[in-house]
Amino acid sequence: MAFSPAEQAAMRRALELAATPGVPLGPNPRVGCVLLDDTGATVAGGFHRGAGTPHAEVDALARAGDRARGTTAVVTLEPCNHHGRTGPCAQALVEAGVRRVVFAQDDPNPAAAGGADTLRAAGVDVESGLLTVESGLLNRFWAFGVRHGRPFVTWKFATTLDGRSAAADGTSRWVSSPASRVDTHRLRAQCDVMLVGANTVAVDDPLLTVRDEHDRPLAHQPLRAVMGERDLDPGRRVFNADAASVHLRTRDPKTALAELHDLGRQHVFLEGGPTLAAAFLRNGLVDEIVAYVAPMLLGAGRSAVADLGITTIADAFRPRVTDITVLQGDPPNVRLTLAPEGA
After folding, report:
1. 279 alpha-carbon distance from chain centroid
2. Per-residue pLDDT for 170 more than 80?
3. Using one digit for the tens of pLDDT, what is the confidence trace for 189-243?
């Protein structure tokens, strides 16, 4: 199908609006909308700013006012068709007199899908499939949660060349380089949950906040989640006022992810110790692996992951490498990004 150059440019702008920094992940997708007049000029643009706020289409329509009549709405996601905290966007577009709607991808949420049919039934010209891949990447974690009923899980760890995350005496600072730690905070900022086990909190007392390269906290902080049944000292740093925290009173990864999904969370950054990592791996609940490998050997000490019940090389866990990046510094570290088989 053919899309005009103006529609293509508008979709790129809508994607930029949808990705506006500072918008929390939350339970909703990131969506942008641009309205074009019959000459292809932009009338107005809008984007969704989080749960309970106007959707992108409604935001753009409000900015356009009466100028919305007769326009083409270019939207990064199929306009919704359901009543939630806000009304259906498909109906809002019809009532505003929009004559054509171009959207990037179908809404995978069965509760919200069907907007395209509503628009067509009202006589609106509707086309889809413009920059679908780009839109899908923008909302990959939200779409994953819709399809699987749980958050996407990224397991991050730092290791020596011989697979040790700490020395025999328990010391682990610093296995990774300064550049790796800055990069870790960059990845943390892309998630809405950082998850560790109760033992990590009891022993290491991590802060679990996201900080910039100067060690200053960012304005938006992910939820800090601690998983485990044991009671913990409320004075541990993870429970301070720097960011929101939750104690998930379970040792079962499936239960923990279900609770986080109920809280509207999309992307978990798993930073716990080897026991917690093994529990998620054994349950098939790791969707991405980020490993920082340092050029050092310990020969003994804590492994990056605990026993997986694997006794023969034929049964080894073999994730697929999707990226290899050398992080320059003193010393340089290698960041490996991997996806489990079938992911």
Report:
1. 22
2. no
3. 999 999 999 999 998 899 999 998 888 998 889 999 999 999 999 999 999 999 9
Structure tokens at 302: 């804590």
Contact between 135 and 42 under an 8 Å Cβ cutoff? The reply is no
Burial status of residue 98 (CB atoms within 10 A of its CB: 0-12, 13-18, 19 or more)? buried
Closest listed residue to residue 127, CA positions, set 91, 100, 88: 100
In angstroms, rounded to a whole number, what is the distance separating the alpha carbons of residues 273 and 12? 41
Average pLDDT over residues 74-87: 85
Whether the pTM exceeds 0.85: the reply is yes
Indicate if the alpha-carbon torsion angle 51, 156, 331, 208 is positive or negative.
Answer: positive
Selecting among 57, 78, 271, 288, the annotated active-site residue is 57
- Beta carbons of 237 and 257 less than 8 angstroms apart: no
The torsion of the CA quartet 117, 118, 124, 125, rounded to 10 degrees, works out to: -20
Tell me how far apart the alpha carbons of residues 52 and 85 are, in angstroms, rounded to a whole number.
Answer: 6
- Whole-Å CA distances, 23 to 104, 332, 337: 20, 33, 25
User: Which residues, other chains included, contact 259 with Cβ-Cβ below 8 Å and sequence gap of 6+?
Assistant: 248, 250
With a cut of 90, say whether residue 260 has pLDDT above it.
yes
Q: Tell me if residue 341 is catalytic.
A: no
The string of pLDDT tens digits covering residues 6-26 is 999 999 999 999 999 878 777
